[in-house]
Amino acid sequence: MKLRIQTHVSQPYQVVWQGFNEELFRKLSPPFPPVRVVRFDGCLAGDMVVLELNFLLFKQQWISRITEQQSSESEIYFVDEGTKLPFFLRFWRHRHRIIREKAGGTIIADEIEFRTPLWVIDYLMYPLLWAQFAYRKPIYKKAFALSPHLS
């Protein structure tokens, strides 16, 4: 199953790329399940991210590896792929695209491909995952708003 959410932000794409760090990553975590960042190497190929998701009665580990990272004059992207996933996921591939807009500003595109143990659960998970990533939109907008002295 595939999911795509785009957010327009005011900052130039190189500034947005520089802002993709552990501090932003922590801000993007939704309220449920609470997430503890165990390890965050960064957003370059070979980097690892290790999370602990707390479902109150039990915890699950999520480990992703950054498998690709490319830069061009129009776009910077990186891909994280799940190597150890929570019980409800069997496959996870997330392409984070930071796309330069000709008129100024940047589009942040989250492109996710996921699979659960059963195809019917894919359809049940879709709105939950969509909500988790829609939650990021105002955080991105705030993090990458133009400062008053720059506008």
Automatic annotation (TrEMBL):
The name this protein goes by in its record: Ligand-binding SRPBCC domain-containing protein
What species was this sequence derived from? Runella defluvii
- Taxonomic lineage of this organism? Bacteria, Pseudomonadati, Bacteroidota, Cytophagia, Cytophagales
